[in-house]
Amino acid sequence: MQHFSTLFQRLDQTNSTNEKISALELFFQEADPEDQIWGLALLSGRKPKRTVNTALLRTWAAEISGIPDWLFEESYHTVGDLAETISLLVDGKPSENQKTLSQWMQTLALLAKSDEIEKRETITNAWLEMDPQQRFLFNKLITGGFRVGVSQKLVEKALSRIHNIPAEVLAHRLMGNWSPENTSIQELIHQKVISEDLSKPYPFFLAHPLQDEPESLGSCDDWLIEWKWDGIRSQVIVRDQNIFIWSRGEELITDKFPELHVLADKLPNGAVLDAELVVWKDNVVQPFQLLQTRISRKNISKKQLLEAPAGLIVYDLFEFEGVDYRNNSLSDRRQKLQEIIGQINLPFVTISEEVKFNSWDELKILRNQSREVRAEGFMLKRRSSVYQVGRKRGDWWKWKVDPMSIDAVLIYAMQGHGRRANLYTDYTFAIWKNGALVSFTKAYSGLTDAEIKEVDAFVKANTIEKFGPVRSVKAELVFEIGFEGIQYSSRHKSGIALRFPRMLRWRKDKIASEADDIESLIKLIEIGS
Q1: Can 2-143 and 404-528 be said to share one CATH topology?
Q2: Which fold has domain 2-143?
């Protein structure tokens, strides 16, 4: 546990890429192999399931700290982070014979079958034998709130240096449905073939946002242009007559889309497609919110299959009949894809449409029509490009349309977490409806550090009521809220839901009465429908 605690602390205290890689290398060189595989799992987002209710953790921490519940709650609201609050209030005496990370993870797994008395004894004893940093990390693991500022790419780079294996090869080996409970670090890092795990996906090639004018890319003849759809980036794998569907976030979502299982018979063994999973109805891509109704349900009903039928817009080809196509040019891969999609002959599985244009100026005009076809903009891909690993500059770009926006009034603020735990950084906004302000969205990103401090000072000086960590404030500050999608929603008081809301700017030039009203939002829905 000490090795992983030290790693967590070093990663959390630096923004230097080289220092982060050095910290990762040290951990993977010094930690026990069992701790290495658990550390790799946690760093790659494989979090353990929460086995203890946070309300119980708060009660137990207050009891062994010898303070009343109200004082613990006040401390929690002041600190803003439960794991840190407990680590500060509980006074332990570190043991010389501490458990390793893998031993603690096994202990946490066993808690799922334990009663409340056993859970309390295990957790409180752990707190008392750890130092504050380990206790903080342990609490993050208990609550499922473990996060650390390191990318998968940096982890792969550190392991690449240690094991002398190319990073792109490691990226492939680290994907898939592996678990630290039944996989060793040596098996995972040094595996030679993918046949041992039929479901194993390939790493995705990701595009950078295009910041400059498209003319900077050179001749438009060198580029393939596709619409950028708002769905789930997916990988469809058929091996040994089995189908596996992975999301870009490495979540296996095969069971969520039974209508796509027919591809197990339509595609040959050893076929892997890169596609956008969308709701496809009446030969049109439907809003993303309909797709969310599919992925948020454990069991898919017949009604959902009818109301939100799935479709695939296929972009690219990883593998066909067991042959890796990634080093072929995009033009070659597209030509093979056209043959494959033609042979599949299913109306809800299509190849991504190539946008025809004669000049960059013409493409700019076409881009402004994105919302009319329910797209987010364009993908620009160099025709000669191979399929790379991760986010690489030069060959693939995404050129999205500007977000929709609305001016809204700040009415609630809540404290943030981590380094912003003492600042009010999470905001609720309202618009006008029948002469009154009605809350309609939340947002917490888009402001500079200086602006956040300024808003925080306003919140503290203009609080109307307190509700735990939340404060209602005087309706005076106006912000421009940007978002990618909008639709009617019965779950929201305003009757409207936004997709990806964030603050574009602080409208200091406006007063609350000049903020937008519900009719403005309704017009945006009508434009996109």
Answers
A1: no
A2: DNA ligase i, domain 1 (1.10.3260)
Give me the pLDDT at residue 466, please: 87
Instruction: Give CA–CA dist 31/19, Å, rounded.
Output: 18
pLDDT at 484 over 70: yes
- Positive or negative, the Cα torsion across 157, 203, 207, 443? negative
Quote the crossing angle between the two packed helices 69-79 and 54-65, to the nearest 10°: 110
DSSP summary character for residue 230: S
pLDDT tens for 131-146 read: 888 999 999 888 887 8
Query: What is residue 284's three-state secondary structure?
Result: strand
Q: 3-class DSSP state for residue 76?
A: helix
CA-to-CA distance for 419 and 202, rounded, in angstroms? Answer: 35
Ordered by start, the domain boundaries in the chain are 2-143, 205-400, 404-528
- Provide the residue type at 426 as one letter: D
Q: Distances from the Cα of 231 to the Cαs of 285, 362, 506, in angstroms?
A: 9, 26, 30
Q: What is the mean pLDDT of residues 211-234?
A: 95
d(CA 34, CA 181): 9
How far apart CA 408 and CA 406 sit, in angstroms, is: 6
Reported as a pLDDT band with limits 50, 70 and 90, residue 485 is confident
Lowest-pLDDT range of 116-125, 294-303, 315-324, 475-484: 294-303
Which pLDDT value is given to residue 1?
84
Task: List, in sequence order, every residue forming a beta bridge with 406; answer none if it has no partner.
Answer: 481
Contact at 8 Å (CB) between 337 and 330? no
Which pLDDT value is given to residue 312? 96
Residues with Cβ within 8 Å of 55's Cβ and at least 6 positions away in sequence, in order, are none
The pLDDT assigned to 417 comes to 67
Determine the number of helices (DSSP H) and then strands (DSSP E) in the chain. 19, 22
Inter-residue contact 426 to 444 (CB < 8 Å): yes
Distance between CA 40 and CA 388 in Å, rounded? 23
pTM of the model: 0.71
CA separation for the pair 404, 273 (Å, rounded):
32
Closest by Cα among 42, 267, 16, 71 to 141: 42
Q: In DSSP terms, which residues pair with 228 in a beta bridge?
A: 377
Sign of CA dihedral 461, 512, 486, 235: negative
Write the class of the CATH domain 205-400. Answer: alpha beta
> Rounded distance, CA 335 to CA 322, Å?
17
Give the pLDDT band (50/70/90) at residue 195.
very low
Residue 193 has pLDDT above 80, yes or no: no
CATH fold, domain 404-528, is OB fold (Dihydrolipoamide Acetyltransferase, E2P) (2.40.50)
pLDDT in the model for residue 527: 63
Start-to-end CA distance of the chain, whole Å, equals: 54
